[in-house]
Inverse folding.
């Protein structure tokens, strides 16, 4: 399950391009916390702490236990990392949007799907494993949000597939995708067909070359030199 990461945040007064630029140069990142029942709160967080939270976990869904210092008062809450803006050149985090959530409030998220094992159709018959759907759209309480959903594909033979409705998910997690969507499939090997194609082409080329060879004799009898092919030395 996704683990909430502790993060300290402070009220942000800096607004506008200039002040925000100075904020970033000082090693802090602007953030905004949004909530259904409260107004948006402008925050700033230490860049190194935010990097550790966002990039220091294997999960693509990051939950934060926010400890906020808001002037003369403090407040703690849980937030979901909604969007992270990166610098396209340096990759540094420029801004982050956070969504406030309650422990008893279900959230929706996209969770990556990973395969486990090697399909029998790949190992024995040379098939190809295709990962057609890479994420599942789920709904659950924050405490039940999985890092990833793993699917055992070792029993798949060539021509077989696994659909959304056949995937076992943790208790408390509801999958919102259509149950008939294919997630994994093993396709038939194509190597034999690719090798046969050049062989057929070569045979056709040899057959087409025969009339040209037969027609070369009259040209030689007439004293005409055959046309040179390829690059000359001139």
């Amino acid at each position: 399950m996704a683990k909430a990461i502790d993060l300290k945040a402070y009220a942000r007064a800096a607004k506008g391009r200039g002040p925000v630029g100075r904020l970033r140069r000082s090693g802090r990142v602007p953030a905004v916390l949004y909530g259904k029942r409260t107004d948006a709160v402008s925050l700033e967080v230490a860049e190194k702490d935010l990097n550790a939270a966002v990039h220091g976990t294997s999960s693509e869904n990051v939950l934060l236990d926010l400890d906020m210092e808001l002037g003369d008062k403090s407040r703690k809450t849980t937030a979901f990392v909604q969007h992270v803006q990166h610098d396209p050149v340096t990759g540094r985090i420029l801004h982050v949007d956070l969504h406030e959530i309650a422990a008893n409030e279900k959230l929706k998220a996209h969770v990556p799907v990973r395969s486990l094992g090697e399909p029998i159709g790949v190992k024995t018959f040379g098939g190809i494993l295709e990962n057609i759907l890479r994420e599942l759209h789920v709904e659950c309480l924050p405490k039940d949000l999985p890092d990833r959903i793993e699917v055992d594909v070792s029993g798949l033979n060539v021509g077989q597939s696994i659909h959304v409705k056949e995937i076992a998910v943790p208790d408390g997690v509801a999958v919102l995708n259509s149950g008939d969507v294919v997630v994994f499939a093993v396709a038939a090997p194509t190597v034999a067909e690719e090798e046969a194609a050049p062989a057929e082409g070569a045979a056709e080329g040899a057959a087409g070359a025969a009339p040209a060879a037969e027609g070369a004799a009259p040209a030689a009898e007439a004293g005409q030199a055959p046309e040179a092919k390829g690059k000359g030395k001139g």
Summary: The mean pLDDT is 84. The chain is about 20% helix and 35% strand. Helices lie at 17-25, 47-55, 120-123, 191-214, 216-221.
